[in-house]
Each structure stands twice: as C-alpha cells, then as structure tokens.
Design brief:
This protein has a single domain, classed as Alpha-D-Glucose-1,6-Bisphosphate, Chain A, domain 4. It has 4 helices and 13 strands. The strands form 3 sheets. The chain has an 8-stranded antiparallel beta sheet with strand order 7-8-9-10-11-12-6-13, with helices on one face. The chain has a 3-stranded antiparallel beta sheet with strand order 1-2-3, with helices on one face. The radius of gyration is 17 Å and the shape is globular. The two termini are 32 Å apart. InterPro entries: Polyketide_cyclase/dehydratase, START-like_dom_sf. It comes from Nocardia alba. This is Polyketide cyclase/dehydrase/lipid transport protein.
Amino acid sequence: MVTFHEEHGTAMVRVAKRTVRMDISEKSASVCPTPFGTGGRATTARRVPMKWGIMAQRSHRTRQTGQLITPGAPCDSVDQVHASGAIVLAVSADVLWELLSEPDSIAVWMSELHAWTDPTPDRVGADLELAAQVQMFDMRHDVRLVVTEYHPDRSWTMTCGSVPGIAVTFTIELDRLREVSRVTLRTGLHGQVLRDADVVVLRQAVQRGLDSNLRQLTEIAEMTFRTPAAVVHHPG
C-alpha cells in the first residue's frame, strides 16, 4: 500500500506488513485521480528528473561497437542497449519478494513507471498484463506491460512493446544466498528508434535510471528492515 502526501514530500509505504515513511520531495509526487481498485486506493503519478530523451539525442561521435551496442536477436540486427545492477541485503528472500512483486511497491521504486492506469492485482504473475503510463524519451506513453517471464519467488520480466519503434524489458532477479539476498535489476531496449539515437549516451541514461531504482529499493529496504545494503554494479 502506498500513500503519497505531496504537501509534506513524503510517502507511506506498506511493505511486508510494515509501514515506512519515504522522503519523495525530489520526485514531485502527486496522486492520480484514477481509482485504484474497488478499495478507493489511488495509483501514484510521479515526475522523475531523468528523461531518456534528453540523453538520447544523436551526437557527432562515431558509434562504438562491442559491449555497448549489441546487434542481434530479438529485433533483426537492430541496436540494443542493456543496463544492470544489484543490491545485497541481509533480509529474508521470502520477505523481500513482497517488495519486488507487489504492483503498489513497484510503483514506488521503479523510476520509469509513471502510474498504473487500471486496477492491479496484489502480486505480479505469469502472463499478467498491466495498463500503465511510462516515461521514455521525454514523453509519457500509455502502454501495456506484459509479464513475459515469471518464476515464483525468484524473478519476473515485464515487456513493453506498445511504444512505436522500441521495445523495453524490465527484469527482477532474486537470489537466496547464505545469510543475505541479492536483488538484480536489468533493463533492455531494442528497436528501430535506436538507429536515430546515440546508443552510447542512451545506455548511460538507461543505467542512471536503473541506478535510481536501486537507490530507491535500498532506501525502502533499509527503512523497512533496518538493515544495511551494498550496491553491486554490473557491466551491462
């Protein structure tokens, strides 16, 4: 359960049967007027400072090859962009999964998600399709996020293919280690629109958005579970 108080710049986040207060003043949070289910809840509408469009304008630099620009599979040799990162938490994976699989909680830490626009279930599940607004290329888009891969208590992948010329995937992976849990986030872009962008700069912008998501997850976990977190960066 997420309740925003714009005048105070805070959000009350209900995670794992606990309520924590978050400072969201930098995000200019507001409440969307669309009802969120039959219980009278509202979806969250947030304006995030990082916009892919500003970072994706073509520069005069020559495109690089190798790790940052990977031709191939799912879009017939169209450029692709990938970013990833992880946090390690001294929290039970079973408890942490609630934070990662509840649409209400996802709306708090996922910077690309502007709002859910239809009622959502309590949990993400296989083949689930969610109506949402996402912020990409300096614009908001009404999209359908489809759960294309789902492994209970371990991982999910949402795919957004309704923005013309581009497909985006968001992946969460939860690993149970000996005394800690590791959460890995991955974001992938591919499509014709990347041919008109500086892919190297775009990847940097996507990585910044993913890093923002990791910071939000870390803050929520630290306030909810009173545990320190370590951020682990991946090459993408």
